[in-house]
């Protein structure tokens, strides 16, 4: 007896939005290539549809030249791949697309609903039967992690749930009542979803309607953390709108929602930059310190703001003369932090890419940051005096004042070098009598705050994991008159002392979203290792008597 044919078959499904007609979902170059592609207006049951099918052929295989050089004879080598897309009307401006072969290449990405498959998975996948996850960590490591557990596991089995984790792909076992497959099934969800769909027209439309209804349901409680951050698809209309708003702000001289970011992903060293050079706009003069928001603003051609974001670059140097590079040339776009609320939803720019932050997640993140700021460090840092109103004393002078005030050892700008860090790194600005590492920064924006947090994190990790680093720090402490016994296997605490060049002291609400994410991740990691973390806002002191 022949086996019964399944009523459904595996399919790759996309959701398309902002369409004025179905053909708009297909890249124009394929619609216009009538020699290789056919576009057919059709229907699926009572629904309007369009089928585009044909083949994609490369003019010449990439390996052909290598073969010809070996045999010293010309050869013909081309690749042809079949591709088809069936676009089915769903509602006003919305359609479904089922792709076959390389059909996904035909879709106009501007209309692809980013993260559709992931959103569906979060609503119908069994929380305890996930098979694979892909996530990106938004911190100084820029880590992309692909984890799989073939037998299935809950989220905790993948170590998911921390702040700043962007999940881009979910695979697991799912069940959706009424679907033609009639039982549990395997699914993969990212921008598209791979799952069984009905083989016949009316049943297929019924499946699509059920999926559409499932999308409007709330995320499952055990999986809702996977929606905390969503990447905005590059090249989409939303991304273009956000870019337009960024360009408007950069061109208007109003810094609403704007700050200078710190591109951790492009800077691998733990050292502190002494200078930087801006390239692609004006003379390449060496400037001291690190870039600030006004440096970014001055580097933008206001007649060509968009082009400036990618053409203008900044390079950091280890020395004041700009002779020892600390980073590659980093596009201006990656030095900008920008936040904007559009249609009641909060978006932010990080490392040149756009992200949507879930409202509930933003509230939870802000509450966690406030908890960190509310902690009271047993010691205190003195107010930061000024040479004159609005002109604070240099950071090195304040560090000396703070070290004297708390009885600590001044280690500002003193590097230790190890085999793991041959170029050296700064362990802290002040080592307190109880063995705490104090890092101090006088800032205007969230950018140096993110850098400060990352520096403190890296320093603590190096001292915990590298015995040579602890030995070198003990020698350094002794050489400046301190007690080397203060250097232990694990720092007592990490303290971030933050002052603002002007205005009120730093608060939890002052930090931009990415700096908040960076701080929370660092605190969670260090506390898990038994190290307390404090953020200490530094008051502005009066001008010193002349």
Short description:
By secondary structure, this protein is α+β, with helices and mostly antiparallel strands.
Characterize the structure shown.
- The structure is a single chain.
- The longest helix is centred in the last third of the chain and has 20 residues, at about 445-465.
- The chain folds into 4 domains: about 5-115, no CATH class; about 115-230, no CATH class; about 250-345, no CATH class; about 360-545, no CATH class.
- The mean pLDDT is about 85.
- The strands form 6 sheets. It has a 10-stranded antiparallel sheet with strand order 2-3-4-5-1-10-9-8-6-7. A 5-stranded antiparallel sheet has the order 11-19-18-17-12, with helices on both faces. Strands 22-25-26-27-28 form a 5-stranded mixed sheet, sandwiched between helices.
- Strand 23 (about 415) and strand 24 (about 425) form a beta hairpin.
- Helix 8 (about 360-375) crosses helix 12, helix 10 (about 445-465) packs across helix 11 (about 465-480) and helix 10 packs parallel to helix 12.
- The protein has about 550 residues and is α+β, with helices and mostly antiparallel strands.
